[in-house]
Amino acid sequence: MPNFGFSKIFWKIFLTFWLVNLAVIFAASFTIVSNMEATRITNLHEQMARRFAEQIIDRVESGQPMPRFRRFGGPGPKRGEEPSPRLNITRADTNTPVFQHRFRFQTEERTLQFQVTSAAGTLYNVETQLPRKPLFMKDMLQRLRSTQFVLILIASTLASALLSWSIARPLKNLGARSREVAGGNLDARPDKKLLQRGDEIGELARDLDHMIHQVAASINGQRQLLHDVSHELRAPLARLQAAAALVEKKPESPQYIAKIHHECDRMNVLIQQILDYARFHELPEDRETASLTDLVDDVCSDIRFRYPEHQIQIDSATTHQIYYTGFLDSLQKALTNFLDNACKYSPPNSLVHIQLSEQEHTTTVEICDSGCGIAPEHLARVTEPFFQTAAENSQKGFGLGLSIARRAIEKNGGKLDFGNRAEGGLCVTVTLPR
After folding, report:
1. Which residues touch 213 (CB under 8 Å, ≥6 apart)?
2. Cβ-count burial of 176 within 10 angstroms (0-12 exposed, 13-18 middle, 19+ buried)?
3. Contacts (Cβ under 8 Å, ≥6 apart) of 404
4. Consecutive 10-residue runs of the chain (434 residues): their mean pLDDT?
5. Three-state SS at 346
6. Strand (E) or helix (H) holding 83
7. Strand ranges (E), 184-326
8. Residue 191 has what pLDDT?
């Protein structure tokens, strides 16, 4: 059985609007025809009732006998009989009945009242019973076969098709772009016209464009990470191969054996950092509440033990303990990394200053050193994986520590900023939500 695509959204929207338009046309046609026919029948009935009333009044005033009327609801009129006029006639000045007929319906909504002036100048009140409203379905169906209805139906069909196409076409475009991205084309983007729309389809296009940007950035980051990892592993492997070759030539040289162990240790540290960076968000960790003041004190105690020649000073803008709820283990490792770098890249006997402060919705930890700082053009890149400045290269690091620390701050919902001090040195500002 061929598939005509009737399950697609175009046909669903088209049929919905088309059927709604048809229902509106039928309802409007029935209402218009009903009102027109009801008005026409009422006018005809009033003309007939007025003629009957004038005849009856003329007979009453001239003293002539009333004609014979057929019984209401009975068989048709016999010879010499006239149809029953169904009128009530009274003199307007004395309210005296002149002619009375028993109505089948006694509701006021079914009667029509008017006045008639006789030839003698006497004013009479006339009340007549309105007939039942007939069904106009046949007349309406006849009108629906007219040229006007055919033109309206064609216009409704075209309008429904245009509306359906205006909705289905951009959705097809967005679907095509998403399939291109799934096929590996990371440069695929929605049309600019869709991105500039102010409706929900425009919002969907902008969301899809943002998602494509994020996916492209993630994939490019993974590619760059693989490139950097291969580059970082190639150097220690080359040194290991060189040391192994020297050992083969001089087996009695222990310095080459020590070199091999050293390079193996460096590779082990590098691989562990790569794993920590790649699996950071997968590591299980519970949120805890503890004193941030005590946590910073513990970090400073560890760093003082490793760098006894540095002066580490802690200042707090509050006299009370500052408590924080979050992933404390990740936060402690990040603060340790910042403080370790502050001591590592500042001269001996220099001051490393830590400032704790509380705001209405945030808590801030600021770590400032007295080192050489970072070039302004490198401040935005220091947390990129394997990015190293000249000072970091001299320390023979891998450039992953700040990347992992940044993920730890982001995991806690915080923000990380870097800035150079005017008097020299670098300030690392950690802003955490309260």
Report:
1. none
2. exposed
3. 273, 276, 277, 280, 333, 334, 337
4. 55 76 75 74 83 85 70 44 67 85 54 85 86 62 65 77 79 84 80 82 86 80 67 69 72 70 72 67 76 91 90 84 89 90 88 90 92 86 74 58 85 91 90 90
5. coil
6. none
7. 288-291, 311-316, 323-326
8. 83
**CB of 42 within 8 A of CB of 130?**
yes
The b-or-e profile of 381-419 (16+ CB within 10 A means b, else e) is: ebbbbbebbebbeeeebbbbbbbbbbbbbbbbebebebe
Q: Residue with structure tokens 């429904």?
A: 160
Amino acid at 165: W
Among candidate residues 84, 127, 129, the one with its CA nearest the CA of residue 110: 129
Query: Residue 96 — φ and ψ, nearest 5°?
Result: -85, 130
How far is Cα 42 from Cα 55, in angstroms, rounded to an integer? 20
Assess contact for 351 and 311: CB atoms under 8 A: yes
Separation CA 250–CA 237 (nearest Å): 20
pLDDT at 271: 72
CA atoms within 13 A on the CB side of 407: 15
The position carrying tokens 């100048």 is 121
CA distances 374 to 141, 379, 392, 428, Å, are 85, 6, 10, 11
Report the alpha-carbon distance of residue 177 to residue 175 in Å, rounded: 5
User: Within a 13 Å sphere around the CA of 39, how many CA atoms are in the beta-carbon half?
Assistant: 6
Report the predicted TM-score, pTM, of the whole model to 2 decimal places: 0.48
Angle (CA) 402 351 291, round 5°: 60
Q: What is the DSSP letter of 103?
A: -
- State how far the alpha carbon of 317 is from the alpha carbons of 336, 356, 359, 368, in Å: 21, 6, 10, 16
Task: Calculate helix-pair angle for 200-249, 254-278, nearest 10 degrees.
Answer: 170
- Give the pLDDT confidence score for residue 51 in this predicted structure: 86
CB 98 within 8 A of CB 124: yes
User: Could you give the CA distance from residue 68 to residue 73 in angstroms, rounded to a whole number?
Assistant: 15
- What is the C-alpha to C-alpha distance for residues 395 and 231, in angstroms, rounded to an integer? 18
Residues with Cβ < 8 Å from 104, sequence gap 6 or more? 72, 73, 129
Torsion of CA 291, 296, 302, 304, to 10 degrees: -140
Q: Give yes or no for a contact between 411 and 330, defined as CB atoms under 8 angstroms apart.
A: yes
What pLDDT does residue 297 have?
92
pLDDT at 137: 59
